[in-house]
Write a structure and sequence with these properties.
single chain; mainly alpha
């Protein structure tokens, strides 16, 4: 089992234990429910106490049920967990706990998607709807966009203008030929950037 999977399982367990402690159950009861050591439950309890202490130190207001629902709703709509936590001043474990209680799935961010999964996503996007791919990998459209930063996005304005004109005039020219033509014009445009830009223009219906 990979480290990332182990981490996810441990995180989920922490959230579930925290929920039971919030309900008023004592440490012994929670340890018995989840079949874990009392020391582990105590460790989570201390972390929760620490989070609460930090919250009071920062003088962050208590959230009403309505405000919690709004924050959870934003998570459900695909906004970044990290961004919301930073914006409103709550810890990730607290916001995840609220989501868990509301039955809302927390979507994975860019740093939670492995390199293998990123390659799979890029391959799937060629023939599948972005929203469907995002749903299959439990992530957001915004994260998919971050993964798919195309090679042509690194080109300067002059190179993009050159490609735009030549691809409109010669949409069936090979990337190799266009790269050579660009070189003759004093521009260095890699073939992978030409291919990605050509694909983009096709998606937009320009060529």
């Amino acid at each position: 089992m990979s480290k990332s999977i182990n981490k996810n399982i441990q995180e989920l367990m922490t959230i579930q234990v925290a929920i039971e402690l919030d309900k008023g159950k004592n440490i012994d009861e929670v340890a018995e429910i989840f079949g874990i050591k009392i020391s582990e439950v105590k460790s989570i309890y201390r972390k929760l106490a620490s989070d609460n202490k930090q919250t009071k130190t920062r003088k962050i207001r208590q959230f009403t049920n309505h405000e919690r629902e709004l924050l959870v709703g934003r998570i459900g709509a695909g906004e970044s967990l990290e961004d919301i936590c930073s914006e409103v001043g709550v810890t990730e474990i607290t916001l995840k706990r609220w989501c868990k209680l509301s039955g809302v799935t927390v979507l994975r961010g860019l740093n939670q998607i492995s390199k293998v999964e990123k390659r799979e996503i890029l391959e799937l996007l060629d023939e599948n709807n972005w929203r469907e791919v995002a749903s299959a990998y439990n992530t957001s459209i915004n994260t998919i966009e971050q993964i798919t930063t195309p090679p042509h996005s690194k080109l300067d304005t002059e190179s993009l203008s050159f490609l735009f004109e030549i691809l409109r005039e010669q949409p069936f020219s090979s990337a190799k030929k266009i790269s050579a033509t660009a070189s003759e014009a004093g521009l260095s445009i890699p073939q992978n950037a030409i291919i990605s830009y050509k694909k983009r223009l096709k998606q937009l219906g320009i060529i």
